[in-house]
Design goal:
about 100 residues, mainly alpha, Arc Repressor Mutant, subunit A, about 65% helix, elongated
């Protein structure tokens, strides 16, 4: 099963990389993004004041608001994975019950 990242996952990946002061290419490679997708997301997270660009070091750094986002994201991701796992288990049990309800041949 292919597991695609959603918008929040991508933002969190960018912020994780920027938490160690990173240049644009470092963010692109470490967050596994194409250049065009990186450009789009960098402008979004900058506009949301989650990261700042430091012209002296030519790098992006995490803001306190960005750290707050990452902290909240970690809690969200943990509970989201738990809920997804439970939903998968329930779905599998439902399939077993549905098979048991089929007429015998």
């Amino acid at each position: 099963m292919v597991n695609y990242r959603d918008r929040l996952d991508i933002v969190a990946d960018i912020l994780n990389v920027a938490s160690h002061a990173a240049k644009k290419t470092q963010i692109m490679y470490k967050a596994n993004l194409s250049y065009s997708v990186l450009q789009k997301y960098l402008s979004e997270v900058s506009a949301a004041s989650l990261i700042d660009f430091e012209s002296g070091s030519q790098s992006f750094v995490l803001t306190p608001k960005g750290q707050e986002f990452l902290d909240a994201y970690k809690i969200y991701a943990k509970s989201h994975r738990y809920v997804e796992k439970r939903l998968t288990e329930v779905s599998e049990k439902k399939k077993v019950l549905e098979k048991l309800c089929l007429p015998s041949q």
